[in-house]
């Protein structure tokens, strides 16, 4: 009796192993049929090889975006979600706070300055360098003013807020090192700075309506007007310089 049971068990194990092997082989076959390649498609490899001998060959989409840089939608986050998250940054627990606004806007401005400094070195069009100079000048000045207000109102000019990945994405912030590698650079800069500006506007609009401090309201109004104007400029340039998207 035990011999028959053992034989049946061994037979079942054998059938299971055979089935697993068949499934693995079938999956590999499907990958082969679909041209799946963990190392990248053949077309991308051919394009990369061609570029090594001819720098004029256009980069792939991944390379154009700086090796995975988020781009306009920042990792697929819809702009309305990014705007909502930006507003939440200045409304902890659903209530507006000047301190939260300052602590969110200062690192946001610092990120814009870093991106603009890259543009001063990498931009192809003088228009991009001009807007980058304006960003550096105006936002450094606002960072200084925020520090003065924070020290006066809260006893310290330094923010104690730690930015996590979700907050960074919500604020449209990008890695300047990745931006510097993107080609065409001016297109990548526009595609990164527009959502960055949009998140700043979302936060500033809340502050403009809710703050009781005239200085903060004035800064918020300046942020909205300046960055709306720069968005309009950059959208026009993008359409003019890169009509195919």
UniProtKB/TrEMBL annotation:
Region of interest (Disordered), ranges: 22-81, 153-177
Gene3D superfamilies per UniProt: 1.20.1260.10
Skewed-composition ranges (Gly residues): 65-74
Signal sequence, renumbered to the chain: 1-24
DUF305 domain location: 98-237
Any Pfam family the entry gives: DUF305
Keyword check for Signal: yes
Keywords: Plasmid, Signal
InterPro entries: DUF305_CopM-like, Ferritin-like
Keyword Nucleus belongs to the record: no
This protein's name: DUF305 domain-containing protein
